[in-house]
Amino acid sequence: QVQLVESGGGVVQPGRSLRLSCSASRLTFNGFAMHWVRQAPGKGLQWVAVISYDGTKKFYADSVKGRFTISRDKSRNTQYLQMSSLRVEDTAVYFCARSAATDYMDVWGKGTTVTVSS
Amino acid sequence: NFMLTQPHSVSESPGKTVTISCTRSSGSIASNYVQWYQQRPGSSPTIVIYEDKQRPSGVPDRISGSIDSSSNTASLTISRLKTEDEADYYCQSYDGSTSWVFGGGTKLTVL
User: Fold this and answer.
1) CA-CA to A57 of 20 to 30 Å: which in A27, A70, B7, B63?
2) A40 at the B interface (CB within 8 A)?
């Protein structure tokens, strides 16, 4: 069974940084765009960022632009989300998801929890 | 950018049919595909409808999707409701260039 596994979540103070990772098990995401999507406690899904299959194009939600950076390492079959200047409102479960050809998310990880609190 | 508006909650009895709407605020609903995701409590989302009306393998044909350009609305219909259908459902679309948009989600209660 294909799997995406996120890691790197934790508790961090406002203003600090954190890096999330997403690796694939029995699945390749080489050749696919990859997303990060988050879900604040008790809230809905919010798209965060996407990186193209070759890493050359990156797009971000306005709420994280300039603070978060998405990247990928083809050799490690892993993508990352570097989060800086974290705010309390960034508290959420962060999911990585693979993008199918017509821009929907066909495989999701189980998520990693980020809590920003002083 | 546009927004996708869903009802906060819907409820229906087992065996009945329910429809969840997703209205696009600006631009045509037909200009970009709409997807639907199911999220059960404590689980990650799974795709149940993609490209407006396509079902991934393993999704029962009780679940269907459609779009209506006249009302600028996409709809998810679940017939012959089962208790296992109880979940949150999210619509999602893309602005065609740089942004992916989710609806606020609809909590389906099967009672």
Assistant:
1) A27
2) no
